[in-house]
Amino acid sequence: MTTPPPTSLVSTAPRVVGDALVAPIGFGCWRFTGTDVGAAGRLLDDAIDAALEGMPAGTRLLVDTADVYGLDWGGAGFGTVEEFLGEVLAADPARRRNILLATKGGIRPPVPYDSSPEGLAAACADSRRRLRVDTIDLYQVHRPDLFTAPSDLAATLESFIDDGFVRTIGVSNFTVDQYDALAAWTASGLATTQPEWSVAHLDPMRDGTVDRAMRDGVTPLAWSPLAGGRVLSGEGLRPELVSALDAIAAREGVDRATVAIAFLLAHPADAVPIVGTQRSERFTALVRTVGIHLDRADCYRIVETSEGVPLP
Ligand SMILES: NC(=O)c1ccc[n+]([C@@H]2O[C@H](COP(=O)([O-])OP(=O)(O)OC[C@H]3O[C@@H](n4cnc5c(N)ncnc54)[C@H](OP(=O)(O)O)[C@@H]3O)[C@@H](O)[C@H]2O)c1
């Protein structure tokens, strides 16, 4: 019997969000805290061009923001990133057509979380106003509000769809049980779930998050897919993981960031890593190089060195 050559697990095919197709790498706006509309527009246009190159017609770039962005990371306060993004989108309508606009609500400092019907309705209305859109493509609950019943949250989110305020709904940072409780009450279904997920943080592959997503045909969006830059700096990563990533990177002729993002694209959940760089050249390089060869042996080497425990 001959052993078949190892096949690459990395998929760069478009992903599905609701009834839309999106590029396999998304653009994150947590650090989109500038004030120069021209420069930010060029950054977004470059990301759109890179991400949509070679994709089927109609594919869009998923752009992820949140009402709370701007409160840290050099921003001027709550809502300012949405306001800035709204200005950048309004400056050129082609941008809006080429992106799937995703935002989040439900964090309300100093409460800190409020997904009550009235709280989330106000948050969604404010996001639409700041983003200057009638309809948000994907509205996500940023963090679970332990004091809102899942039936009430589902009714609120469904009402946003019924009223045409949002096209699809999703969650972020929900435990599997919190996800299940909400999903059970949600007639139109969740489109996405957004956990922290990177080579340095494999929990969603172990705690059921991405398994639930695969069961339900829900697309995982991986936040901080380069561990907020720590994949590059090595800070807090096991040295064995850094060595494994670098060895694969050298073999493939790419950098460590590419291997880390390719690892997420190798998982069968068909996730969308939301990359947070604010440098065009880095975003473009990732998109262009991510289709490397990662087979099972490579992926398990990353898992084993990340977890620091020999696989049974
Ligand atoms: N749902 C949630 O609770 C939650 C929480 C956090 C983030 N998010 C989402 O996830 C997105 C991404 O988060 P993140 O910004 O932490 O993502 P990330 O992609 O893990 O990290 C981005 C950081 O890595 C740096 N970096 C260094 N070398 C890089 C390279 N070669 N290529 C790319 N980046 C490099 C970037 O700096 P430069 O800009 O200088 O390149 C940037 O500061 C956010 O924008 C947000 O949409 C969601």
Describe this protein's structure.
The chain contains 13 helices and ten strands. It has 312 residues and is of the alpha/beta class. The protein has a domain of 180 residues: Alpha-Beta Barrel (TIM Barrel). The strands form two sheets. Strands 3-4-5-6-7-8-9-10 form an eight-stranded parallel beta barrel, surrounded by five helices. Helix 5 crosses helix 6 and helix 10 packs across helix 11. The chain binds NADP nicotinamide-adenine-dinucleotide phosphate. The site of NADP nicotinamide-adenine-dinucleotide phosphate (NAP) has 25 residues, from strand 10.
- Stretches where pLDDT is under 50 for at least 5 consecutive residues are none
How many β-strands, per DSSP? 10
**CATH-defined fold name of the domain at 15-194:** TIM Barrel
Evaluate the radius of gyration. Answer: 19 Å
How many helix segments? 13
**Distance separating the two termini:** 26 Å
Q: Identify the CATH class of the domain at 15-194.
A: Alpha Beta
What structural class do helix, strand and pairing data support? alpha/beta
Order of helices and strands: EEEHEHHEHEHEHEHHEHHHEHH
Strand content: 5-15%
**What is the CATH architecture term of the domain at 15-194?**
Alpha-Beta Barrel
Bound molecules: NADP nicotinamide-adenine-dinucleotide phosphate
| Main sheet characteristics | 8 strands, parallel, barrel
CATH superfamily grouping of the domain at 15-194: NADP-dependent oxidoreductase domain
CA-based shape? globular
Roughly what percent helix? 40-55%
User: What is the mean predicted local confidence, pLDDT?
Assistant: 97
The main sheet orders its strands as 3-4-5-6-7-8-9-10
